[in-house]
Every structure is written in C-alpha cells, then in structure tokens.
Write a structure and sequence with these properties.
The protein is α/β, with parallel strands linked by helices. It folds into two domains: 210 residues, Alpha-Beta Complex (Spore Coat Polysaccharide Biosynthesis Protein SpsA, Chain A), CATH 3.90.550; 102 residues, no CATH class. Strands 1, 2, 3, 4, 5, 6, 7, 8 and 9 form a nine-stranded mixed beta sheet that branches. The longest helix has 21 residues. The chain is globular.
Length: 339
C-alpha cells in the first residue's frame, strides 16, 4: 500500500509534462503512486504519461471536464492514506513528499499541510511577503476570533500543488469544484477544511510554480470568473459550524469587495455592484476595500479602468504587445502579523 497518492491533472501540457513527472519520480519518499488524469488532452501529453517508464505511474483518461473534475477523478482512484496534487506544468523539489508526510505523521490533528513555493520564471520565493501577512510555521486552527483578513490570507496561501492532505478529509469535504469552473475551484475545498479541522502551514519552498506555463493563472485579458463560494455560498455556510458562520459571512463580504473591484476594472460595474448588495451589510463599513469597491462600481469607475488598461498597454518596446495587468494585482487587504 503506497503512503501517498499523487494526482496530476493533465490538459495540453505536453511541453512541460516530462519535468513534472521527473520531479515526482525523484522524490526521496519512494512509497507513492502517481495517477495522471488525462483530461481530454489533444497535444500528445497523454502518450507521454502512458509511456513513462516507472511502474508507480498510471494514467486515467476522461473527456475534458476542467481541473476540478480531473483532480476529483484522481481522488476517487487514490489508494493511499495521504494525497497530493501537482499540476502538469509545475514541479516538486525532491523532499516535498518526505517533508510533508513527516509533518502529518507528527500532527494527526491536522487535515492537511500547505507549504511555500518558488515563482518562475523569476525564480523568486514569496515567503517574506506571506510572513508579513501572518503566515507562520505550525498548526493553524480557525476560531470565531480569527481576524477576517488573516482568514483570507490563509485561504489564499493554500494551493493544490503545495498541499498534502489526508485522503479521507478531502473526500469528506467533497473534493474540488467541478462544472464550468476555471478559477478558484480549490478555494471552496480549503474553506471547508479550515472551517472544520486544523491545518498545518509552513513557509519552506518545496514547489516550483511555473507561471509562464499556465493558462489559468497570471495575466488576464478580461474579467475572471466569480469565485464559486461567492456565486453560491449556501453549501459551505450550511456545513459551517455555527460559531464560525459569522466569520465566514465576513470573509465573503471582504472577498466580494475585491471581486467587485475586479469586475468594475474590466467594465462590468453592474455585476460588481450586485455582489456588494448581496454580501455587504452596515456592519461591514470597516472593510479596507469597501470604499474603493463602492467608488469603482459606478460608470466612472469603469471609465477609469478602461483608461488604466490603455495606459498600461502603451508599454516599452521590450514589453509583449497587449500586456494587461492581472485581475489579481488589485489592492489587497492590509497584512496582520498574527491570527
């Protein structure tokens, strides 16, 4: 019986897949199985995975259903106590599995462990940024007294490629968001975990995240989708322990402000205003982004967003034409040193 099931969702990542598979094969913890879920690839990536010369690797094929559906197919096929997820364009350092398995072995109360990473092509670790935002090594348990800004940062810090979890906990929470979801399909899962059990966080960078190879993160040429937990917060709230429901509501209000700013920046200020009306109440007047969101969700806010995009596209000669700011580069919440 393997100790870890590694799930690799694959969709048209053939140029990067070998790097990903090799990083898994080189793990210092050898007791794992690797499940590549070919999510309808058309570039030959499935053939690369099927011919990989390591008996610990196997491939499952399915029609394209998105990253959430691909990961969930791997979850259903997983045989190990622990499960980890690695996107086909990213890579792990050799000690990723061994380090994180040891942490969960020593902290049975934790549902998962999420660590740091290095961003490529810049080869820069954002550990210092997350440290200033209050992320620190150790067990983290959310309570009704957790500041909403800290809760938000914890959710943002957790990503599939940097997380190793107990398979039973992932299955209990229902896995990843499916359907036509191409943004934030993992955050509903992290919310369910955080609202029910402790997790372990650390800042050690054991994952290489290749932003230049991703088509679902990085720069956007239009508004991204609204997060699933904002589109339909009901299921998460219904399963949330009563003492934490107020925290979840305030978290949704804070995130609604951020998403409303994004929508207004790209001209859809009416949808942004609709989010504010749905999630903001009079008690939320202290939210850092609320004044900005209220000003942005007007016709004038949309005009200013359009002018800003035009200004940014007038880039120097060495800047790729049509480059626009990421919707995730909008103002964030102020950091807190502790939660």
């Amino acid at each position: 019986m393997p100790r870890v099931s590694v799930v690799i969702p694959l969709f048209n990542k053939a140029p990067f897949l070998q790097r990903c598979l090799d990083s898994v094969a080189r793990q210092t913890l050898s007791g794992f199985e690797a499940i590549v879920v070919d999510d309808g690839s058309t570039d030959g990536g499935g053939a690369i995975a099927a011919s990989y010369a390591d008996p610990r690797f196997r491939i499952i094929r399915q029609p394209n259903g998105g990253p959430g559906a691909a990961r969930n197919r791997g979850i259903a096929a997983a045989a190990a106590e622990y499960i980890a997820f690695l996107d086909a364009d990213d890579a792990w350092l050799p000690a990723f599995l061994e380090t994180n398995v040891s942490i969960l072995d020593n902290h049975p109360e934790a549902a998962c462990v999420s660590g740091g990473w290095t961003d490529f092509p810049a080869a820069v670790s954002p550990a210092r940024i997350w440290s200033r935002r209050g992320i620190r090594d150790g067990v983290c348990e959310i309570s009704a007294r957790t500041p909403v800004s800290c809760f938000n940062y914890i959710v943002m810090y957790m990503t599939p490629c940097t997380t190793l979890a107990r398979t039973a906990a992932i299955r209990h929470c229902g896995g990843f968001q499916e359907g036509d979801c191409r943004f934030g399909e993992d955050q509903s899962l992290w919310l369910k975990l955080l609202l029910s059990r402790p997790v372990y966080l650390h800042l050690q960078a054991l994952t290489d995240v290749h932003r230049e190879a991703s088509v679902l993160s990085g720069n956007y040429t239009g508004p991204r989708a609204i997060e699933p937990f904002l589109a339909d917060p009901g299921p998460i709230r219904a399963g949330c322990p009563p003492p934490l429901r107020d925290l979840f509501d305030r978290f949704c209000a804070a995130r609604a402000c951020k998403t409303a700013c994004m929508l207004a920046y790209w001209g859809d200020w009416r949808s942004g205003r609709g989010l504010l009306r749905r999630f903001i109440s009079t008690r939320d007047w202290r939210l850092p982004l609320l004044p900005i969101a209220m000003a942005a969700c007007t016709p004038m806010g949309a005009v200013l967003g359009r002018l800003d995009r035009r200004f940014r596209t007038r880039a120097p000669a060495n800047t790729p034409p049509g480059s626009v700011p990421s919707s995730e580069s909008l103002p964030r919440f102020p950091a807190r040193s502790r939660w």
